[in-house]
Structures are given as C-alpha cells and as structure tokens.
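Hi everyone, sorry if this is the wrong subforum. Our group has a chain we'd like a structural model of before ordering constructs, and none of us has done structure prediction before. Sequence below.
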Amino acid sequence: MALDWDKLDNISSDMARRVEQAYIEISQALWQQTQGMTAQETALFINNTDIEALMTAKLTNVFAEYQAGVINILENTLLSGNISQEFLESTLNQSINYLSQEFVSKTTWSMRNEIFNGIANKLDIDDVIENMKKLGYDEKHLKTIVKSGYTQFDNAITNAMASEMPDNSMWVYIGAYDGRTRSACEQKILSSPATKSDIIRRFGNLDNEVWNCRHKWEPVTDNIVDQGYEEKKLD
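Answer:
Right subforum, don't worry. Here is the predicted structure as tokens:
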C-alpha cells in the first residue's frame, strides 16, 4: 500500500498547531512575569529560566503522538527486503531528534531573543509573537518542518529497502504531478518506472527532495497508478 499522504498531512498539521500554541503560551507567561522588572532584572530572569525544559514538557505528548502516527503510517506502507525493527526504531528516533532540535532548541533560542528585543523596543507580547511567526514559527512553516522530518526517516527506509533488492528491481516515483512539482521531482516522475541501478546512476540514491516534498520511490507492484503514480501533469 502507498504512503497515506492525507494521514501524514493530518499528523503534520496537528503537530505544527501544537508547537505554535506551546511557544505562544510560554512566551506570554514569561512576558507576564517580567512586567515591572528592570532591563537587567528581565535579562537575568530570562537567562536563568530553562525555556528548553518548558518546551520539552509542553511537547512530550506531541512527540509521542507523532511517533505513534508514523508507526501507524509505516504499518500500512509497502515494505520490501529485510528491514529490522531495530533499524526502524533507530531511524525514527533520528527523525524525532531532528524535530526536537527544530522545535525545542531553535525555538527557545528565538523566544529569548525576541522577548529581549520586544522589551528593549517597548513592544507588546502580540508584537513579539508576530515577530516569531515572521521568523518562520508560523503554523504553515512548522508543518513543513514536520513533513521534512518524516521525509528524512522515509528516505532512510527506502534506501535500506533498495540495498536488499537486486539492481534490476523496478521502482516508481509516486506523488503529485502538478504546477507545484519541482523540476528535480518531475525528472524522477518522467523516468519512472526504472530499475534500481538506473535510478542510482542518474540520481545517486532513492531519496526524494526532502524539504516539503510530496513524493517517494516505491518498488513497483501490479498497478503503479494505484500506487500513486501520476503519469500526466495536472493543470
């Protein structure tokens, strides 16, 4: 069975919404507690507050639900070759670590900076949050990060599967083919179906284009259209 893009989209949307909600709630709480403080007192308070721990606590269930959702997607996705449970768990942990770096470490660093800047420039908390969104911490951009984190995980599995299959095994590049399709993905669509050896010779590996990519390589089954292969470009 092909990747359930709708399920991945729902997982990404939910996670992005909750990450945005978490940093907004923490920013508002920190801002409230700094009211009436001097600039030096505010700096000491913000620097001595473990914002990463606050974000981690807020997102514990979010990461757990992401993990459960990805496992559910994987259980209903075509897998071939000898892929061990240990490899899958290790690769999924890498995906979660990537998202933790993006949503905990990088986000809290930006929160500190924007709160400092907001106080220095006499802004209100709504302005601080809006500036965070302009830096890429809006729900749309956060959703793209989630999808890209999943894609790294999926690419690792695809290449591991391919390594266990013969060079003449047939693969197809599935996913949307429309006006948003990047030229690199279009080349892979137009080259499908193709043998593993031809794909590696032409593209280097069986990765998709990672950042917000809507495609993936899959071993050919009986009907590539049912797998999600789009032969003709939609207007």
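For your construct planning: The longest helix spans residues 85-120. The longest strand covers residues 170-175.
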